[in-house]
């Protein structure tokens, strides 16, 4: 079995940046007004002018034939999430060579996909969109909306990791500790973090053990559109 020498884990302090090449913000909108509901998930470039948010909200309401009352609600939701992201900008975070399991459990239209995989959160050049496209190609998923949904799900988990790291650094400074704790959080995502060096040892295998294969086997289920429509109708009533 092939082994790799990982050496000692490296760490550095950088300004807030999610572990991805493009520092996009995952946005999730779920709004209900007068019995009508709008739900969507997408990424947003935080460098885009605020006027783009207004344009997007108006265009979305028009294209989906939503009442005008949705526009301020969509606008408020997106701006609130962008403001939260910007509150972390300029803050310090510690980046260390780590891997952690990320999980996806999504239903997009009539396609359901469940999977988990290991992600190097120390790699600031990772590309969730490219990963999602490759995954869809490998699993023969043809619905063009599934890939973007997977990428948003990944970015949401990486965003939580980065923001919790910033919070840990803040708390360390306030308590005047000599060394900031990494990923000191009770969140589910943070508790899944695994140090590469501790996980594999100085010389460890990166090949999954046979008894662990089932844990990382993706599950894809495509149901008839009629069944998906019934599920959508039930979810609208929640």
Automatic annotation (TrEMBL):
Cellular localisation: Nucleus
At the top level, the lineage of the source is: Eukaryota
Its GO CC terms?
nuclear chromosome
Q: Which UniProt keywords apply?
A: Nucleus, Transcription, Transcription regulation
Name the Gene Ontology biological process terms.
Answer: chromatin remodeling
Give any Pfam family that matches.
Answer: SNF5
Sorted alphabetically, which PANTHER family does this protein's record hold?
A: SNF5
Please give the family membership noted in the entry: Belongs to the SNF5 family.
Q: What is this protein called?
A: Chromatin structure-remodeling complex protein BSH
Q: Which organism is it from?
A: Aegilops tauschii subsp. strangulata (Goatgrass)
């Amino acid at each position: 079995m092939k082994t790799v020498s990982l050496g000692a884990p490296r760490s550095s302090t950088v300004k807030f940046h999610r572990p991805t090449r493009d520092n996009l913000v995952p946005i999730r909108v779920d709004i209900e007004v007068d019995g009508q509901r709008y739900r969507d998930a997408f990424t947003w470039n935080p460098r885009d002018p605020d006027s783009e948010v207004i344009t997007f909200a108006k265009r979305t309401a028009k294209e989906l034939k939503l009442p005008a009352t949705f526009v301020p609600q969509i606008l408020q939701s997106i701006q609130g999430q962008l403001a939260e992201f910007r509150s972390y900008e300029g803050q310090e975070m510690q980046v260390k060579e780590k891997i952690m399991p990320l999980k996806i459990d999504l239903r997009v239209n009539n396609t359901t996909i469940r999977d988990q995989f290991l992600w190097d959160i120390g790699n600031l050049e990772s590309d969730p969109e490219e990963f999602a496209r490759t995954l869809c190609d490998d699993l023969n998923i043809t619905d063009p909306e599934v890939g973007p949904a997977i990428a948003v799900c990944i970015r949401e988990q990486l965003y939580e990791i980065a923001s919790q790291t910033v919070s840990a650094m803040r708390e360390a400074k306030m308590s005047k500790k000599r060394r900031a704790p990494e990923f000191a959080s009770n969140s589910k995502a943070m508790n899944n973090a695994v140090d590469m060096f501790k996980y594999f040892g100085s010389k460890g295998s990166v090949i999954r053990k046979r008894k662990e294969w089932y844990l990382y086997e993706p599950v894809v289920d495509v149901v008839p559109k009629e069944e998906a429509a019934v599920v959508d109708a039930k979810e609208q009533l929640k």
